[in-house]
Specification:
Elements lengths: L1 H9 L5 E5 L7 E5 L2 E5 L12 E2 L5 E5 L2 E5 L2 E5 L2 E13 L6 E10 L14 H6 L1 H5 L16 H24 L5 E2 L2 E2 L4 H4 L2 E4 L6 H12 L4 H11 E4 L10 E3 H7 L1 H21 L4 H7 L2 E2 L5 E3 H7 L3 E4 L2 H11 L1 H6 L4 E3 L6 H7 L2 H11 L20 H26 L8 E6 L8 H17 L8 E6 L7 H18 L8 E6 L4 H7 L5 E4 L11 H7 L3 E4 L5 H8 L5 E2 L4 H10 L3 H7 L1 H12 L11 H9 L5 H20 L1 H13 L6 H13 L29
Parallel strand pairs: 1-9, 12-13, 13-17, 17-18, 19-20, 19-22, 20-21, 22-23, 23-24
Antiparallel strand pairs: 2-3, 4-8, 5-8, 6-7, 8-9, 10-11, 14-16, 15-16
């Protein structure tokens, strides 16, 4: 999202990023005795110089209450009000004198909160209770790819939506487009002036909210309101894991947002009537496509609401968009194939090259000029230097300098001696079973066993760096962190291993740490089970910064291999088709365990307490999962992964061949600029044209700049 804001400003789009100003962001992670411990991230403690509160744009948001049906239409009454106070943060474009706005909402209690009702006069308690309203923007839910149907979370989702839509409509009415017929605003041009992109289903309540505003407040007829709403919204899907899809209990929505539930029911009724007219008597299809899931507790399927209420739906990498169309939402895609698109994710080269890796950025500029920063496709010009011995040496030198710098950082923070000439093998991302940090762990144990079995044999030295946060309630992810740290403790303290293998768990992985570790990485680990990682963006950051990738054919890895040539990535393991085939025949982990002696040895060590001698049973849950309910099939890809890692080590011995492959990767990374992604959203979904125009700086008189800005008009 931050990359997208940077690109939208750099491309001169009049775009706003809206969200919540959380008082506490994602927790700070501490590792104590090998376990993750969470600490509150009080990021505003010392103030935030970049934000400006805008109390003049404060807006009311309503909750609870009931619906009255009157002659003039539905009225939502007896609600509780929370105020939304906006804070604006500037988003500067790159060298184009454009500054956009990120507007984040903070929750405030109205001054008469708990004092307006026939209160028994407990003024003190009433003031203390203001916290209840203000808790809405207190803390970010730290789940990754997991839906937890909590009331506070639904309040957060509606809070950001209600405040933002009021803001957008206020701005529309104030513009020349919101032309008024005496009193009533004409909204016909709304979709031509406003595009709203739903980033996942979290803001899905925007669809019934905009309908409520149009129908109940602005008194538009339903069908007209629905057409405008659909033309305004577009939805981006970010995951296919079923446990991540938002399915809100009807009872909760009815209590918190009674009018919105009625509107959702109405949307669903018209939607199902349409399906029934096309597929008479196909009750099964109606059940599959309904916005309401029956059976047990009734739930609203928010993804279905987003698809029905949007004019465009997209996935975030080619393979992901295919899965969205052919598997997850196949009924909807069969109905409206033209609605479904792909927009492969991208990253901003300003942060993820210039800012974090100035040495490499400068080296590239010396060869091909500085224009690539705004047009990353120009990196293909580097192909002509792939055999240039001087350039090869310079690229290797920049990487080595970055490694030395990061090694010093690690030695300072972790008190371990790092060999800067070892291969920096890095696996940093949220800790999740589908991302298969466990498979990396099994490779570490396998390398360790090989070193101990044959200490005299040539071994390519590695520093394996794993980092990432586990959701606080995700038991297995926390066990995986403990296991990695337990293995690290054994490996790092075994004199037989010495400097050949070091394992580090990187504490509190976050953007500022990514900016340090990514430029220093030799090998990027992107090893999710095929069909589970929607896109990934870390994979692109590593590619742009001169790391080679070991990965599965998943997410954007597929397109990285397409751009660079599969022979320039270390691709291994099952493809999506193989995973589906294995699901059909039934995945039997035991089979691999018995067939592969090195796998058996590693798993037995974990199970027997070799890495946890004080508590031999410590990892029994992990081992049990791997044998009996591993949805992500770690053992099935183990052998291919180990063999692929051997090829990696072999290439690393030939520094020149390695660096040539690095250059081919950097030269192929141009597609993965978020500038390209945003141009595609702009043209295919928002119907606006990006502009390369440089607005004249504020110190330059406007008329002297006329010729530069097409008669001086600026969006």
């Amino acid at each position: 999202a931050a990359c997208f804001l940077d690109s939208m400003a750099t491309l001169g789009l009049a775009a706003y990023g809206y969200g919540i100003r959380y008082e506490y962001g994602i927790f700070n992670q501490k590792i104590r005795d090998g376990w993750q411990v969470e600490e509150a991230d009080d990021w505003l403690r010392h103030g935030n110089p970049w934000e400006k509160a805008r109390p003049e744009y404060m807006l009311p948001v309503h909750f609870y209450g009931r619906v009255e049906h009157t002659a003039t239409g539905a009225k939502w009454v007896d609600t509780q009000v929370v105020l939304a106070l906006p804070y604006d943060t500037p988003v500067p474009g790159y060298m184009n004198n454009t500054v956009n706005t990120m507007r984040l909402w903070s929750a405030r209690a109205p001054n008469d909160f708990n004092l307006r009702d026939f209160n028994v006069g407990d003024y003190i308690q009433a003031v203390l209770d203001r916290n209840l309203a203000e808790n809405i923007s207190r803390v970010l839910y730290p789940n990754d790819n997991f839906f937890e149907g909590k009331e506070l979370r639904l309040k957060q989702e509606y809070f950001v939506v209600a405040a933002t839509l009021q803001d957008i409509i206020r701005r529309f009415k104030a513009s020349k487009f919101g032309s008024t017929d005496s009193v009533r605003t004409v909204f016909d041009s709304f979709p031509d002036q406003v595009a709203i992109q739903l980033n996942d289903t979290h803001p899905a309540m925007a669809i019934p909210e905009l309908m409520r505003i149009f129908v109940d407040i602005e008194k538009l007829p339903w069908n007209k309101a629905w057409e405008i709403t659909k033309q305004t919204f577009a939805y981006t899907n970010h995951t296919v894991l079923p446990e991540a899809l938002e399915r809100w209990p009807v009872d909760l929505v009815e209590k918190l947002l009674p009018r919105h539930l009625q509107i959702i029911y109405e949307i669903n009724q018209k939607h199902l009537d349409h399906i029934a007219s096309l597929f008479p008597n196909d009750m099964e299809r109606l059940r599959r496509m309904s916005l309401i899931e029956e059976g047990g507790t009734k739930r609203i399927n928010m993804a279905h609401l987003c698809i029905v209420g949007s004019h465009a739906v997209n996935g975030v990498a080619k393979i992901h968009s295919e899965i969205v169309k052919t598997q997850v939402f196949e009924d909807f895609a069969a109905l409206e194939p033209e609605k479904f698109q792909n927009k492969t994710n991208g990253i901003t080269p300003r942060r993820w090259l210039l800012l974090c890796n100035p040495g490499l950025a400068e080296l590239i500029a010396e060869k091909i000029g500085e224009d690539y920063v705004r047009d990353l496709s120009q990196l293909t010009k580097l192909h002509q230097f792939v055999d240039d011995d001087l350039f090869i040496r310079e690229v290797a030198k920049v990487k080595q300098e970055n490694k030395v710098k990061f090694a010093l950082y690690l030695e300072k923070e972790y008190k371990v001696k790092i060999n800067p000439s070892s291969m920096f093998d890095v696996h940093v991302k949220r800790i999740h079973e589908y991302k298969r940090q466990l498979m990396n762990c099994l490779h570490i144990i396998t390398m360790y066993n090989r070193i101990r079995r044959d200490p005299a044999k040539l071994f390519v030295p590695r520093t394996v760096i794993i980092g990432g946060k586990a959701a606080p309630g995700y038991h297995m992810a926390k066990m995986i962190i403990k296991l990695i740290n337990a293995v690290a403790h054994v490996v790092n303290n075994d004199p037989a291993v010495g400097s050949k293998l070091k394992v580090i768990f990187l504490e509190n992985y976050r953007v500022s740490l990514a900016e340090k570790v990514i430029p220093a990485t030799d090998l990027s680990e992107q090893i999710s089970t095929a069909g589970t990682e929607a896109s990934g963006t870390g994979n692109m950051k590593f590619m742009l910064n001169g790391a080679l990738t070991i990965g599965t054919m998943d997410g954007a890895n597929v397109e990285m291999a397409e751009e660079a040539g599969e022979e320039n990535l270390f691709i291994f393991g099952m493809r999506v088709e193989d995973v589906n085939e294995l699901d059909r025949e039934g995945y039997d982990a035991q089979k691999y365990y018995e067939r592969l002696p090195e796998l058996k040895h590693a798993v037995d060590q974990i199970a027997s307490g070799f890495f946890s001698p004080e508590e031999p049973e410590l990892f029994k849950d992990v081992v049990n999962m791997l044998f009996h309910h591993d949805r992500f099939k770690v053992f099935a890809d183990y052998e291919a992964y180990i063999k692929c890692q051997e090829k990696v080590s072999e290439l690393y011995l030939n520094s020149k061949a390695w660096t040539k492959m690095v250059i081919r990767n950097i030269a192929a990374a141009g597609k993965f600029s978020s500038d390209r992604t945003i141009k595609e959203y702009a043209r295919d979904i928002w119907h606006v044209e990006p502009s390369d125009l440089k607005i004249p700086p504020p110190n330059e008189p406007r008329d002297s700049a006329e010729d530069k800005t097409l008669n001086g008009t600026v969006a």
